[in-house]
């Protein structure tokens, strides 16, 4: 059944677990997420970015997610819009039947310029007002995702900022977070703690100086009743990189957010964990392997089946690690 983000995250908070929010762009990803959730009886958050809407078309995405809900009536599914750049974009998603929207006011609507706190509060408040009227949840974002190794922002949605940033901008301030939540009444708050989008997050396995789980604890201590969201939370498993390289792909040395660090953050209020890159890596590794082992293959069903199966395993392992098993 379609449920709001608020319903899912309230249950997660009451029962001390976190929920992976997987990005979806096509049929096989939607199917993989549902099959994994079904196998472990986990609740589902599926999210669509602007890039996903551009790739698939918003009506196709809408109906893919609705097909998932119809096919698995016993699984609660939140249909979430990822990184909405303006109230108009969020209104569009609400009109399509999404049960949750993210108003990302950390950047201006050009998706590049870092916004002011007041701008962020105002646009987020506007979205909360229109969304709550119709039972739709809202995720806001305070702070700028980016790297504490390079002190640069990350290009959210592929067209964000790569501006130079200060440590203060790259780590969400607990007092500001409290003021932001108080003024906007968001249902969930995305925070900056050193993660960034995409496959290249860290040049080494991250330690506390470049991935601040400590900051999660400080924010949670200040706003214990707010559901926290971690973006850029793919783990970039080395096994996928090795498999991609082994079967003809190229990948620079890179590290993601270790699953055990996410599990620690879940003890301190993180309830939604955004994952896109890990599905991309799982699919790519499986497809490369399939083509090398089956050079004469040309039926897309064959290699997409391999990609789907790899995605099921990845999703299942995140559901289990984050404590979702049996929570649907
Ligand atoms: O926000 C970033 C997500 O990974 C979505 O990526 O904009 O390429 O669809 P995308
Ligand atoms: P990853 O690139 O780490 O998968 O992050 C996805 C994300 O935050 C989507 O909003
Ligand atoms: Na989001
Ligand atoms: Zn994100």
TrEMBL record:
GO terms for biological process: glycolytic process. The active site is at 82 (proton donor). Zn(2+) 2 binds at residues 104, 141. Its cofactor is Zn(2+). Zn(2+) 1 binds at residues 83, 197, 231. The keyword Zinc applies. It is an enzyme of class 4 (lyase). CDD domains: TBP_aldolase_IIB (cd00947). One is catalytic and the other provides a structural contribution. Binds 2 Zn(2+) ions per subunit. One is catalytic and the other provides a structural contribution. GO terms for molecular function: fructose-bisphosphate aldolase activity; zinc ion binding. InterPro entries: Aldolase_TIM, Class_II_FBP_aldolase, FBA_II, Fruct_bisP_Calv. NCBIfam families: cbbA, FruBisAldo_II_B. Belongs to the class II fructose-bisphosphate aldolase family. Catalyzes the aldol condensation of dihydroxyacetone phosphate (DHAP or glycerone-phosphate) with glyceraldehyde 3-phosphate (G3P) to form fructose 1,6-bisphosphate (FBP) in gluconeogenesis and the reverse reaction in glycolysis. This is Fructose-1,6-bisphosphate aldolase. It comes from Parasutterella excrementihominis YIT 11859.
